[in-house]
């Protein structure tokens, strides 16, 4: 019994184009030809084509199928590897579906990790929101939880708005005044959320990468006067200025 290329493709449940491509890449041997020049395929070709199609449907690439060769009818090790990859893919897709449900149900932002989504419902400046989006990409889960808690419990202090509105040419007395008023604000944040001060030990790429990224984000998002105020405020805190809440 011999089949034409079209008949072989139909029997295997694939296409003429696929059969021709498998010939081109060396996965399927070329058959003999009839006297009229037409190809004639036999059972061995059909069995090989069925195996190729099954492996492709399971998720193997053509290169992986080529590496398996033609004699291994049950590539157990390769199948176990693929099974592990599929399990990881399913887990990733399930997490993605969970995040999509949160986005759809709560109109959550797409640029923030799920833990920091509350930032979208807080009255933040564009710079603060962008900073949180960047920070969420580099810190670990412990710090993300601390930031999420803080964002839902921000102290009501006008100094935050004064800092947001600070022009880049703010004079010396203005900068110093805002910095001094920020000291108790920072103390209050740290007292309410002590985990904010914990080391970046669970950061995926390590503490030094977090510090470099934070520095870069601050420089890109805040104007020189705001950066100067932050530096002054933290200097005052290191010097013991201001009294932390009891």
UniProtKB/TrEMBL annotation:
Pfam family, one: MerR_1
Entries under CDD domains matching the protein: HTH_MerR-like
Superkingdom of the organism of origin: Bacteria
Keywords for the protein's UniProt record, in alphabetical order: DNA-binding
Protein name per its UniProtKB record: MerR family transcriptional regulator
Keyword DNA-binding: yes
Residues covered by the HTH merR-type domain: 2-71
InterPro entries in UniProt: DNA-bd_dom_put_sf (IPR009061), MerR-type_HTH_dom (IPR000551), MerR_fam (IPR047057)
